Amino acid sequence: MRLASKTGLAAGVLIGAPAAALTFTIGRLVFAAPNFVLRWLQPAAFTLVVPGATVDFVTARTSHSLPVWVAATSNFIFWLGFAWLFGFLLGKLRQQIRLLASHL
How many C-beta atoms surround the C-beta of residue 68 within 10 A? Predict the structure, then answer.
């Protein structure tokens, strides 16, 4: 396994784990927080939860009939794959830039 792949996998775990944990508190993300910093972080936290909520709505047609752990698992898998793919593509881009720079 290459370093870029390991880095992407580690980044996926670091993004996916908080996203899965935030899925269990999705009800609190909807209401406005009294603190300015928390009010600023809520949209970012809600963005992390959206893929799992989408899977939840598509598979069960309502958010109340499917267990929350299914949404949390899908959030973790989505963000793990997203970060791994981003790291992989970034490694390929760096490789192409080095190749292009060597020919100049």
Answer: 16
At which residue do the structure tokens 């793919």 appear?
85
- Cα(86)–Cα(72) distance, rounded to whole angstroms? 21
Locate the domains of the chain by residue range: 3-102
As given in the structure block, the two tokens for residue 63 are 């958010």
Taking only the tens place, the pLDDT of each residue in 50-92 is 888 788 778 776 656 678 888 888 889 999 999 888 888 888 8
| Strands (DSSP E) found in 1-104 | none
What is the spatial distance between Cα 26 and Cα 48, in angstroms, rounded to a whole number? 10
pTM above 0.85, yes or no: no
